[in-house]
Amino acid sequence: MSRSGFHPDAPNAVLYGDNIDALRRMPDECVSLIYIDPPFNTGRSQRRQNLKTVRNEVGTRTGFKGQQYQNIKGDLFSYDDAFADYWEFLAPRLEHAWRILRDDGSLYLHLDYREAHYAKVLLDALFGRDNFLNEIIWAYDYGARAKNKWPTKHDNILVYVKDKTKYHFSNEDVDREPYMAPGLVTAEKAAKGKLPTDVWWHTIVSPTGKEKTGYPTQKPEGILRRIVQASSRPGTWVMDFFAGSGTTGAVCAALGRRYLLIDSHEDAIEIMRTRLEGGNLLLGEPKFFTVDDVSSLLDLPSNEEVTRDLGPNA
Ligand SMILES: C[S@@+](CC[C@H](N)C(=O)[O-])C[C@H]1O[C@@H](n2cnc3c(N)ncnc32)[C@H](O)[C@@H]1O
């Protein structure tokens, strides 16, 4: 199979349609960073299938942790119905995410407390436990407060790298944050700010702020900025295949990264059109396609070859 990636002249792109149709057509190791923020409930309408007995001999590939991954997936899927529905939707997309990441690349999977622990087990098996980098806690403080338990005010972002010996990470390039107790450090240190840890305090997108697009699940640019700054180099390809309002694209445009965004909702595409047009100096304005057109962006030998390599469930 070809190791080639995007055509050197490929534009920043926004694709309309089901992301699986684009992912299946993408070659191995062609993007440097993937951030995804999947919707919680999408999988519930998917077809239920017992994967407990799946043996994916054709589909296992070097580094994929083949049989172990299939076994763990089968065990988790048989544990809980709602979980299985959701993960039958998400797991094949994560398998493709692993496949299309370059060997210095990273995946950021944005979830919440309901799914994060299952995702950790599954991604440990898919990427290899050694390639787990962090669980980032994004803490915010907004909205109603439960009276019968600790109010839940955080999201979980799991970070995996394709290869722990080769991945790119530079927190020196990340915007620093103020010290909580600036009086305890020197004035020079206080002025410089501190390196962020794995707990990120950040407000949600303000309902009245200029960042707001009106898209209900929009994430703050400040969160994406940190991710893109730390885990990608300028000029490399960043992908978000649950793109929503296009936060990843807006941040990439500002930071000089190339982007490929996908969403299956027409409203998201229209919001991205408004938000991203005119915003990028690196490759010009994004082009809009459907997922079926993804091959035209890629230097790709044959779509069929990529699909066959991953086996029947991907
Ligand atoms: C939680 S939102 C992402 C929000 C985004 N991070 C932002 O900042 O605006 C999830 C998005 O995934 C999209 N989506 C759901 N299923 C999809 C699929 N199969 N293919 C592509 N997009 C999908 C939804 O339309 C929705 O816009």
UniProtKB/TrEMBL annotation:
<dbReference type="InterPro" id="IPR002295">
    <property type="entry name" value="N4/N6-MTase_EcoPI_Mod-like"/>
</dbReference>
<feature type="domain" description="DNA methylase N-4/N-6">
    <location>
        <begin position="31"/>
        <end position="272"/>
    </location>
</feature>
<keyword id="KW-0949">S-adenosyl-L-methionine</keyword>
<comment type="similarity">
    <text>Belongs to the N(4)/N(6)-methyltransferase family.</text>
</comment>
<dbReference type="InterPro" id="IPR029063">
    <property type="entry name" value="SAM-dependent_MTases_sf"/>
</dbReference>
<dbReference type="Pfam" id="PF01555">
    <property type="entry name" value="N6_N4_Mtase"/>
</dbReference>
<protein>
    <submittedName>
        <fullName>Site-specific DNA-methyltransferase</fullName>
    </submittedName>
</protein>
<keyword id="KW-0808">Transferase</keyword>
<keyword id="KW-0489">Methyltransferase</keyword>
<dbReference type="InterPro" id="IPR002052">
    <property type="entry name" value="DNA_methylase_N6_adenine_CS"/>
</dbReference>
<dbReference type="InterPro" id="IPR002941">
    <property type="entry name" value="DNA_methylase_N4/N6"/>
</dbReference>
